[in-house]
Amino acid sequence: MKPPIIENPRGATRTQRYGQGLLTAVFWVILVLLLRPLLTLGAWLVGGHLLFQTLGQSGGLSGIFRVPFVYLLVVALIGVVLIGWATYNLLRFRNNERRTRQPDPVTAAQLAGFFGVAEAKVRHWQGSRRIVMSHDELGRPGEG
Q1: CB–CB of 63/55 below 8 Å?
Q2: Could you report the per-residue pLDDT of 1-15, keeping only the tens digit for each?
Q3: How far apart are CA 119 and CA 109, in angstroms?
Q4: For the CA atoms of 66, 67, 68, 70, what is the dihedral angle to 10 degrees?
C-alpha cells in the first residue's frame, strides 16, 4: 500500500531540494550535539574506571554539579527570552486584528478549472461521502 502523503521531489526546484537537505543536515548536527551528554554518560558507563580520573580533572563533585546548574541557567534564560518575546507581541498586536475579511469560498467551476476536469466531476466528488483519488505523472487528479 502506498503512503497517504504525496511526495514528488521532482516538483521542487533544485534550490528547494538543496535547501531542504542542508536544513536536515543542520538539525541532525544539532540533535547530535544535544545528545552528546548522554553519549558521554554511556562512554563513562562503558569505561567506568575512567570516571574517577575525570572527576579528579574537573574538580571533583563540585565540577559535576556545576554542569546541570549551567544547563538549567541556559534553559531559564531561553524561557525568559521567549516569554518576553510573546509578551511584546501580545502588547504590540493586542487590538490590531488584520484578518477582518474572510476569503471567498472556492466554487466548483474554479476547482474544475484548476485541476483541468469537468465541473460535473468536481460536483460528484464534492457530493461523495468517500472517494479514492489517483494522480497521473503530472499530478492531475482522477478517480482511482
Answers
A1: yes
A2: 555 555 666 677 888
A3: 6
A4: 80
pTM of the predicted structure, to 2 decimals: 0.34
pLDDT per position as a tens digit, 67-115: 788 899 999 999 999 999 999 999 998 888 777 778 888 899 998 888 8
Neighbour tally for 36: CB within 10 Å: 10
Phi-psi label, residue 85: left if phi above 0, alpha if psi -120 to 50, beta otherwise: alpha
Placement of cell 490590531 in the chain: 96
| CA distance linking residue 132 with residue 118, whole number of Å | 17
Residue spans of the domains in the chain: they are 8-46, 59-95, 108-143
Name residue 134's beta-bridge partners. 142
